[in-house]
Structures are given as C-alpha cells and as structure tokens.
C-alpha cells in the first residue's frame, strides 16, 4: 500500500515474526531478519531444539542466527551425506526457525539405535555448512549431536466411541520427549478395514475382529505382540474374568479365539465370538501388548496396556462403535 506521501509501505502476509521486519524486495513484501538484534550474538547461541514424535525427530534452529553467521540451512545434512532431506521454515513461538526432520528408524540417514531396558534411543548428527555464495568462507561448519529416547512402556484406553481413538504417552530424552501412539479397534470382517458402527447389530456368537496397532515407524526393528488378553464385566479383571490370549496364543476353549497375526508386524489381529456375562451390563477387554525387537537374542519385556470397554446402551452392548445385541 501507499501512505499519504505515495511511498510504498510493504505488508507481509502472513505477518513477520518478532525478530523480522517486512521489507520491499523488488516490489514484493518479504520478511527479513532484524540484524541489529543479533549484533552481540555469538556462534554458541546457535542451539538446536529437538521435538520427538512417533513419526519424526524434528530439529529446529533460529533462522536469523544462522544467517547472522553465514550458515547455509538449505545444505544441512545428517551423518549419511547420500541421504536426501528437506528443510522447512516454521514460526515457533515468536521466532522464525528452520526445521529438518529425521525418521526414528534404525539406519535411516545414518541413525544409530540403542535398546536399553524399556527404552529405545535413536541418535544422529546434524551438519550445517557455511554459506559460500560469495566465494569466501568465514565460518567453520557446525556439528550437532541429537537423539530421541522413546519409552516403550505406555498405557492406552479406548472406551465406547464411534471411531477408534489413540492415546499417547511421553518418554523423556536428553534432547526432547517422544510419544508412541497405540490404537485398539473392532471390525466387522476379517479384512480389518470395516470398523463397527452404531448401525451394526450383532447377535451373541457373531464373530468380531479386534485390531491393535502402533504408529511407531520402525517396523524393521520392532514387532507388536499381544502377550495376554482378558475380558471382564468390570474395571477390575480379578473379580471375574475370562482369558482370551495367553503367552501370545489363543485360549480357544474360552470364546473360540483365533489369532490372525501376532508378533509379525506393528499390528495385532485376532477374532473372537461376541458374548456377555450373565447378569452384567458391561464387558471390558484388556490386552498386554509388547513392542518387541526382532533380534531373537533380545528379551521382550516392555508392555503396552490397551483397554476396550463394551457397554450396554438401551438394551444393547456397545463394542468400540459396534452393537453387541443382548
């Protein structure tokens, strides 16, 4: 726009961060760093932050600080220089940051993995070369070690819902925190892709297919294994319960349970026949599930507890969006 003196005043959309100013660059409004803010800064002020999620380890750095010391964030790379990675600009708090993502998977772009007790740690190195556009290099390369430690022990519960709902747990690491998501759901057929809905009515004895999965991406290293599953009419399975899966195997004499897949990938699938407890309005199902290393020499000890609640609603029995007829 123009003010009263017909001087072009740039307007940036979206708005600039607090450490930026909107500038007129060849007729276009662009956000540029306020260089005066960083006149007394030093290279030691360049400190990355790490956000650990199930799908990615995200490293963020202050964009203006990198520019202040002539570092090329477009050429950042991990330990494996042959690995192709991309960077992006995000607004984090009130500052513009450069982000680069690493997948938590053994061997990915030079990742190193260590399993200890009930955690797994992925680590890598981020390299940031100096900018040599002018042909003169006045800075040395930066090298940052970073890691994410994921706690493999978590609890997740699914009450009566119309759609499968995940729940998260956060494990701490020296660079950030990581979360792993687990989901438990009921399906109508052995295809495991047609979730039960409120319109579905099943008589007692009708097969129902239970699926448990995790969003953790390292399927090359880990598998998901259901160690034990029980059903109970209350939140306290010790009061009265029936075992459906024991030591990873179906207890067929209970409810004609059939295990479709267990301990082979990052999903568990099994089939049960619908049932009710005499004189009890609710049915709950618990499964102790482990994320197990594929390495046969490693003992699987960590547990992930899932809970599926089946409730009576207006004379029917709800199972994770499905209806179990009384």
Q: Low-confidence parts, pLDDT < 50 over ≥5 residues?
A: 155-174, 307-326
State the helical fraction: under 10%
Number of contiguous helices: 2
Series of secondary-structure elements, N-terminal to C-terminal: EEEEHEEEEEEEEEEEEEHEEEEEE
Fraction of residues in β-strands: over 45%
Please describe the biggest sheet, giving its number of strands, its sense, and whether it closes into a barrel.
9 strands, mixed
**Can you tell me the overall shape?**
elongated
Radius of gyration, Cα only, in angstroms? 27 Å
Structural class: mainly beta
C-alpha termini separation: 70 Å
Number of DSSP strand runs: 23
Describe this structure in words.
With 326 residues, the chain is mainly β. The protein contains two helices and 23 strands. It has helices at 63-68, 252-255; strands at residues 20-25, 28-33, 49-52, 57-62, 87-92, 95-102, 112-116, 119-128, 142-151, 154-158, 167-172, 177-187, 201-202, 207-214, 222-232, 242-246, 249-250, 258-261, 267-273, 283-293, 304-313, 316-319, 322-325. The strands form five sheets. Strands 10, 13, 15, 16, 17, 20, 21, 22 and 23 form a nine-stranded mixed sheet that branches. The N and C termini lie far apart (70 Å). Residues 155-174 and 307-326 have low confidence and may be disordered.
């Amino acid at each position: 726009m123009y003010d009263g003196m017909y001087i072009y005043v740039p307007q940036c959309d979206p708005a600039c961060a607090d450490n930026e100013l909107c500038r007129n660059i060849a007729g276009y409004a662009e956000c540029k760093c306020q260089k005066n803010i960083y006149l007394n800064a030093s290279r030691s002020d360049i400190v990355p932050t790490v956000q650990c999620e199930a799908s990615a380890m995200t490293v963020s750095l202050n964009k203006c600080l990198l520019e202040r010391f002539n570092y090329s964030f477009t050429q950042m790379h991990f330990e494996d220089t042959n690995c192709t990675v991309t960077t992006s600009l995000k607004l984090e708090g009130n500052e513009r940051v450069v982000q680069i993502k690493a997948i938590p998977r053994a061997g990915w772009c030079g990742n190193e993995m260590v399993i200890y007790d009930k955690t797994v740690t992925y680590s890598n190195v981020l390299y940031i070369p100096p900018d040599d556009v002018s042909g003169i290099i006045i800075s040395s390369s930066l090298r940052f070690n970073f890691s994410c430690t994921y706690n493999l022990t978590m609890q997740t519960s699914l009450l009566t819902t119309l759609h499968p709902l995940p729940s998260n747990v956060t494990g701490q690491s020296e660079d950030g925190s990581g979360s792993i998501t687990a989901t438990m759901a009921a399906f109508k057929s052995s295809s495991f892709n047609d979730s039960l809905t409120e319109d579905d009515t099943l008589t007692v004895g009708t097969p129902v297919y239970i699926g448990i999965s995790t969003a953790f991406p390292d399927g090359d290293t880990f598998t998901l294994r259901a160690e034990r599953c029980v059903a109970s009419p209350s939140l306290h399975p010790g009061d009265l319960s029936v075992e459906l899966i024991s030591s990873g195997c179906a207890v067929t004499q209970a409810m004609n349970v059939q295990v479709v897949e267990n301990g082979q990938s990052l999903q568990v699938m099994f089939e049960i026949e619908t049932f009710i407890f005499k004189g009890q309005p609710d049915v709950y199902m618990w499964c102790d599930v482990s994320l197990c290393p594929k390495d046969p020499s490693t003992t699987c000890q960590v547990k992930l507890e899932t809970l599926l609640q089946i409730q009576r609603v207006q004379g029917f029995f709800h199972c994770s969006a499905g209806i179990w007829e009384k």
